[in-house]
Amino acid sequence: MFDKTTKRYYLILILLSTCATSILIAQENNSYVIIDSIIIKGVERTKPWVIEQEARIHKGDTIALQKINEKIEEITIDLNRTNLFSKVDITYQLEFTEHYLIVIEIKIEENWVLFPSIIFEIADRNFNVWWKEQNHSFSRINLGAKLFHYNITGRKDILRLQMHTGYTNKLEASYEYPYISKRYNIGMRSGVLYTQNKEVVYKTENNKSLFYKDDQKSLFSRRRFSLGFKYRPNRKWTHSLNTDYVYNKVSPAITDLNPDYFLDGATKQQFTAIVYNLEYYTKDFTSRPTKGIHLLFKVEKIGIPWIEKYNLINTIQKMSWTQSLYKKKIVYNILLQSKQGILRDKKYPFNLYEGLGYNNDLVYGYEYYVIDGLDYFTVENGLRIPLFNFNKSFIRVFKNEPKIKIKVNFDYLVNVNYGYVNDPFYKLNNELSNTHLYSLSTGFGFVINDAISIRVQGSINHKKESGIFIHSKSSF
After folding, report:
1. What is the DSSP string of 409-444?
2. Which residue from 35, 53, 293, 419 has the highest number of Cβ atoms inside 10 Å of its Cβ?
């Protein structure tokens, strides 16, 4: 006779053998497991069905047994990429019955996605230009208020309201809803914008922006009405189509200085812009990825032929590849970008003629320059070495909103950069146009809540000019 302890051991062995045999039989038969239930924990604002939709799993779906871990990793990546969550943890439990069931548990911590704030922002192209070339003048500051909510009804919908005065008078409102179709794969965005300026960049000379200012009256005003749609057939591909109607008006004082500002000395400009984007995305995070690919193809049509004055077409391509190296202690990223003007027989208006130096399209080390052009090509090779991180939850400011959560990752960065801009129309007195640009940069990066990136780095360019530069970018 066996004692109780021996019987218990034999019973455990029998159960383990039975489970192992069931798994082997299921794998041999290429079996699938059925999602029996999805348990979501930690939800404060986001609707549970939105989480299921972004994870692309639903009760009753099937998963190939040998691909369960791969599917769990995909779900984790997809939820992280929404930027709605500061932490995502997924576990599962298999139940071997007649049909092989799986119970998936998703634990999340929601990000702080409500940003009501006072606007105190510089109006220049970047912080470096404002600090050095404009002597950090407070006359170039915009003051106002804004309300950004990136999950206003818990459906991953985005509301932006903004009003400020100062260097630029601005009123802007937009709303984006990602699930207007029955299959939840089509979204819509609409927006309006009005701006007014008393100072205008009327020309580029020596790759520097030349300004004209009048403290007594507005020199430039813009009205823009936008409508767009986004289609996501699966987790990797996204199509978007956006239409803007733009009406600009400029003072005769500007066209006297540069008749090509709107072309032919015109003081009014109106056009329809239609933009199509095709995007392929497999990266695990948007601001601080450790692996994956991002491909973008963009076609921009400005003007409707035979109806409007302009007939311009631009194409833009982007390829970014990220890979972890040396036991995931170093992250390598290469970014290639290019732009081409397709219709080249007529001159572009100056205000629509942009190359590098605007927004985040630049070569590090050339922050003080604008390099206008019809075409450009850039390469950025970068290494990122993670240093440490900080994670802290604070108080709940508003009812039904997540607590304020701050997650900060600190990294050491090294970049080797290259760029070239082709300028067939305005290259006179702009030596950096049609010139090979290259630089070396190194410094530190800070990523807040996997959404806001800040870089503080030193750079040296091919002219042997060096400096410390600050850059910021948001994933929203």
Report:
1. EEEEEEEEEEEEEE-SSS-TT-TTTTS-EEEEEEEE
2. 419
CB within 8 A of 360, min separation 6: which ones?
471, 473
Give the span between the Cα atoms of 334 and 319, in whole angstroms. 8
Residue-by-residue DSSP string for 144-205: EEEEEESSTTSSS-EEEEEEEEESEEEEEEEEEES--STTS-EEEEEEEEEEEESEEEEEEE
* CA-only gyration radius of the chain, Å: 27
**Token pair of 125, please?**
């192209």
**Parallel, antiparallel, or unpaired: how do β-strands 405-422 and 158-166 relate?**
unpaired
Give the number of other Cβ atoms within 10 Å of residue 67's Cβ. 12
Q: What is the pLDDT of residue 29?
A: 46
Please enumerate in sequence order all residues whose Cβ is within 8 A of that of 349, keeping only pairs 6 or more positions apart, or say none.
260, 261, 262, 263, 269, 310
- Name the pLDDT band for 361 (thresholds 50, 70, 90): confident
Phi, psi of 91 (to 5 degrees): -130, 165
Report whether 212 contacts 257 (CB < 8 A): yes
205-217 pLDDT, tens digit per residue, is 999 989 998 878 8
CA distance 81 to 288: 10
| Residue 258, pLDDT score | 95
Say what angle helices 68-81 and 48-55 make with each other, to 10 degrees: 120
Residue 112 is predicted with a pLDDT of: 78
CB neighbour list of residue 306: distance below 8 Å, 6 or more residues apart: none
Written as six digits, the tokens of 233 are 């057939």
Distance (Å, whole) CA 183 – CA 55: 14
pLDDT bracket for residue 86 (50, 70, 90): confident
- DSSP-derived secondary structure letter, 12: H
The predicted-structure confidence for 21-75, as pLDDT tens digits, reads as follows 444 444 444 588 999 999 999 988 899 999 999 999 999 999 998 899 999 999 9
For residues 286 and 80, give the distance between their C-alpha atoms in angstroms, rounded to a whole number.
8
pTM, 2 dp? 0.83
